[in-house]
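Propose amino acids for all 516 sites.
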């Protein structure tokens, strides 16, 4: 196996402790602390699941597979019958109930008591209101996405800043402070723990740790808190952390005009596309991009652009696809990581270190066509929506997503998941799930198990959780691993193209940005 620095752009050198295929003996030692699944935790109280979409229907059978509990204690609450056969087939209760800002308290009162668990897998349901409800009644809580009520993210009467993920994350942090909902003082409420956000934060930590092990030649102590993780990143010279995803699934039924096709929630994806593009802004950056807007409240560790995510394109790299383009899509984990990895000067309070963090997303080909049609129609959404699921996915499809970490002296490192539709079918033969929703499902279950094992952790984000516990659980199924690369955005720059703005520093954001 070649050394980390010898991998070429467009190809990858993999490290995987479970197979001893690593860049060095030091890299092999990284895997000693993981690669096994801890025993199933036990839960004996009630669980209420809100939502019965694709993710919820995939999660339900895994709850009783990976948590010791009676399925009769689980109730699924949905506005329609979409998930009834799945839930009732597993011995769970299924209730049709509209869930609104006006009635949620009375509805939840009919199902939950202190010590129970609320698992929110819905869209357009106010996560913060549900968290506060649960905190005041000592009920555990988890969601896969921090959501506002209704369609606030697409409301033109709401300011761009108020439609941002930065804004709703600030509200989460303010709620935690107002309730004093910290570890040891209140029941656990985990926000945003699916794949990304969720597994992404654990993948970032693991990638950083494996880089440190390769650089040092020996596994260093695992950072114990925010300050230690940020200090480790600074020491390694990490400047860029991209969430890099390429969805390579193809439909056996071509997209039709007036139809939006995606491998997960169409409504959720359109909301992301119409929100302003957002990113954590690194301290190494020389200048702000055109149209950048600065925040005046909160940590101020992120910026947003004065245009929707759908219109921002950036360069990225994944092990299987190699170099490609993705949309700069607003995502919670990028804002959380930017805040988590910030170092401030102790005397002045000035930010002295932070990497640039953002999500580059290339969806499946049918979703790319759907996005193009959406933009050409002035962002008026198509009337027909279709989620690409078996048996309508062609063989050979895959989804690879992970954390592309750039800046260390050994080159770039990508840590994540590359999962095929065939692997998904093997893992979950009786569940209608694809290569995109499978990691989300396991991310939700990993968060659920963590909450059961740590029931008094207060309001927390994925970065607050022990990443080893999460990866210990998901790695045997998702086969998470790392890849070295020497790719950077100017690696194969064509001289016929416009000259880069910062040719002397490839890791400036200006060199990643393709167009807006």
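Proposal:
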């Amino acid at each position: 196996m070649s050394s980390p620095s010898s991998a070429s752009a467009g190809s990858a050198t993999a490290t995987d402790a479970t197979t001893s295929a690593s860049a060095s003996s030091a890299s092999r030692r990284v895997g000693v602390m993981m690669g096994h699944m801890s025993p199933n935790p036990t839960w004996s109280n009630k669980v209420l699941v809100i939502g019965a979409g694709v993710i919820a229907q995939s999660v339900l059978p895994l709850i009783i597979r990976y948590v010791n509990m009676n399925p009769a204690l689980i109730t699924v609450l949905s506005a329609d019958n979409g998930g009834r056969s799945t839930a009732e087939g597993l011995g769970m209760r299924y209730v049709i109930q509209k869930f609104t800002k006006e009635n949620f308290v009375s509805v939840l009162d009919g199902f939950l008591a202190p010590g129970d668990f609320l698992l929110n897998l819905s869209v357009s349901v106010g996560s913060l209101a549900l968290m506060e409800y649960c905190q005041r009644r000592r009920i555990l809580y988890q969601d896969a996405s921090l959501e506002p009520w209704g369609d606030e993210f697409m409301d033109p009467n709401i300011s761009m800043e108020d439609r941002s993920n930065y804004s709703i994350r600030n509200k989460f942090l303010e709620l935690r402070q107002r309730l004093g909902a910290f570890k040891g003082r209140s029941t656990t409420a985990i926000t945003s723990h699916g794949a990304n956000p969720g597994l992404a934060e654990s993948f970032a930590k693991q990638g950083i740790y494996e880089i440190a092990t390769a650089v040092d030649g020996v596994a260093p102590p695992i950072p114990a808190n925010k300050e230690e993780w940020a200090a480790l990143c600074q020491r390694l010279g990490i400047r860029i952390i991209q969430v890099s995803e390429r969805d390579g699934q193809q439909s056996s039924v071509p997209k039709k005009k007036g139809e939006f096709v995606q491998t997960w929630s169409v409504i959720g994806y359109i909301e992301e596309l119409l929100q302003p593009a957002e990113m954590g802004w690194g301290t190494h950056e020389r200048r702000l991009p055109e149209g950048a807007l600065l925040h005046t409240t909160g940590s101020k560790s992120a910026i947003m652009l004065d245009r929707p995510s759908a219109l921002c394109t950036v360069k990225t790299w994944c092990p299987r696809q190699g170099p490609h383009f993705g949309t700069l899509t607003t995502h919670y984990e990028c804002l959380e990581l930017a805040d988590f990895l910030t170092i401030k000067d102790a005397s002045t309070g000035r930010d002295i270190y932070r990497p640039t963090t953002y999500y580059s997303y290339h969806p499946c080909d049918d979703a790319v066509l759907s996005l193009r049609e959406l933009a050409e129609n002035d962002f008026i959404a198509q009337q027909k929506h279709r989620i690409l699921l078996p048996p309508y996915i062609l063989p050979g499809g895959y989804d690879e997503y992970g954390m592309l970490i750039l800046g260390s002296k050994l080159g770039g490192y990508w840590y994540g998941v590359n999962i095929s539709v065939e692997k998904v079918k093997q893992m979950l033969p009786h569940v209608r799930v694809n290569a995109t929703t499978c990691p989300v499902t396991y991310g939700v279950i990993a968060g659920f198990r963590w909450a059961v094992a740590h029931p008094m952790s207060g309001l927390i984000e994925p970065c607050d959780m022990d990443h080893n516990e999460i990866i210990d659980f998901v790695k045997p199924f998702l086969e998470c691993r790392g890849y070295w690369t020497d790719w950077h955005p100017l690696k194969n720059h064509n001289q016929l193209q416009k000259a880069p703005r910062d040719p002397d520093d490839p890791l400036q954001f200006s060199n990643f940005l393709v167009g807006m």
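Confidence is low (pLDDT under 50) at residues 1-9, 16-36. The longest strand covers residues 398-408.
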